[in-house]
């Protein structure tokens, strides 16, 4: 099973990669299954509505996925390419505690196969531009990040896996915060995730971001396995043709080395286990 379970297209505000081209490229790579996971970031981005002016930040529209058109396009792509590749409908929920009701309304409105629960911002302050980290010590913003994650997994259950679980590392200008200092937080989060029969992902973008470790880190992957975690997906976090399918085979080898026996795809929010 060759599957990419974290893929963005031009339905996400930060990609111009057309969905049909993504599917054609995936087929040419002999991919068995692909899951689209377009961005939704309530709090800092807005739904596209008829007559509503779109706000831009530099050249990127601050908009969430155009849901009706997205669902319609996926159905069209299934009819056109379904005999060559399995196409799954997903979303990446960039969630905060105060935006939970908006995500729950969206989840109830459409039929999804897969939901990535990610944290891209806290208090409407983003990580990539250092707004969240500003005027905080390294300890404060790491602690705040994992505390926010624990609150979310304790209060929101309609998701499949936690996305790029230690994303804060990608934007930590003070280098990587020692794992032992965040281990208690990570352990609390993973125990809730496992108890709820949810999972985590390996996000293979770590290499292209120049990180020395995997995402999540090897220490987190090991701890998840030690705690009995079994649900794990592999996704490239693709936004461009050169990202699609990247490092997925290497991640399968890594999971085997860490003692995992299976990885997952999803159908109608239910995990399907595949031997590594």
Characteristics of this structure?
alpha/beta; seven-stranded parallel beta sheet; 32% helix
Fraction in beta strands: 15-25%
Q: How many distinct folded domains?
A: 1
Q: By helix and strand content, what is the structural category? A: alpha/beta
The stretches of 5 or more residues where confidence is low (pLDDT under 50) are: none
Topology, element by element:
Blueprint: E1 3-7, H1 19-28, E2 33-40, E3 56-57, E4 60-61, H2 67-81, E5 86-94, H3 100-109, E6 114-118, E7 121-122, E8 125-126, H4 138-155, E9 161-162, H5 179-195, E10 199-203, H6 218-226, E11 232-235, H7 248-257, E12 262-267, E13 270-275
Parallel strand pairs: 1-2, 2-5, 5-6, 6-9, 9-10, 10-11
Antiparallel strand pairs: 3-4, 7-8, 12-13
Could you characterize what this model shows?
Helix 1 (19-28) runs parallel beside helix 2 (67-81) and helix 5 packs across helix 6. The protein has 276 residues and is an alpha/beta fold. It has helices at 19-28, 67-81, 100-109, 138-155, 179-195, 218-226, 248-257; strands at 3-7, 33-40, 56-57, 60-61, 86-94, 114-118, 121-122, 125-126, 161-162, 199-203, 232-235, 262-267, 270-275. A 7-stranded parallel sheet has the order 1-2-5-6-9-10-11. A two-stranded antiparallel sheet has the order 3-4. The protein has a two-stranded antiparallel ribbon with strand order 7-8. The protein is globular, with a radius of gyration of 18 Å. The chain has one domain (3-275): TIM Barrel (Alpha-Beta Barrel). The mean pLDDT is 95.
């Amino acid at each position: 099973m060759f599957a990419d379970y974290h893929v963005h297209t031009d339905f996400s505000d930060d990609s111009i990669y057309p969905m049909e081209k993504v599917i054609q490229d995936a087929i040419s790579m002999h991919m068995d299954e692909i899951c689209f996971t377009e961005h939704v970031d309530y709090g800092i981005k807005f739904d596209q509505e008829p007559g509503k002016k779109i706000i831009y930040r530099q050249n990127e529209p601050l908009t969430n996925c155009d849901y009706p058109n997205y669902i319609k396009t996926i159905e069209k792509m299934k009819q056109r390419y379904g005999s060559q590749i399995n196409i799954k409908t997903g979303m990446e929920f960039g969630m905060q505690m105060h935006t939970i009701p908006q995500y729950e309304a969206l989840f109830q409105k459409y039929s999804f196969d897969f939901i990535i629960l990610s944290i891209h911002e806290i208090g409407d302050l983003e990580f990539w531009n250092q707004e969240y980290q500003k005027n905080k010590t390294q300890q404060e913003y790491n602690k705040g990040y994992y505390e926010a994650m624990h609150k979310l997994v304790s209060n929101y259950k309609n998701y499949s896996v936690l996305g790029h679980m230690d994303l804060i590392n990608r934007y930590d200008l003070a280098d990587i915060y020692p794992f032992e200092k965040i281990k208690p937080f990570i352990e609390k989060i993973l125990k809730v995730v496992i108890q709820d029969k949810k999972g985590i992902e390996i996000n293979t973008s770590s290499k292209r971001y120049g990180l020395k470790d995997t995402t999540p880190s090897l220490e987190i992957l090991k701890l998840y396995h030690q705690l009995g975690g079994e649900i794990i997906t592999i996704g490239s976090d693709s936004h461009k043709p050169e990202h699609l399918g990247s490092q997925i085979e290497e991640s399968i080898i890594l999971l085997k080395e860490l003692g995992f026996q299976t990885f997952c795809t999803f159908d109608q929010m239910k995990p399907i286990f595949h031997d590594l």
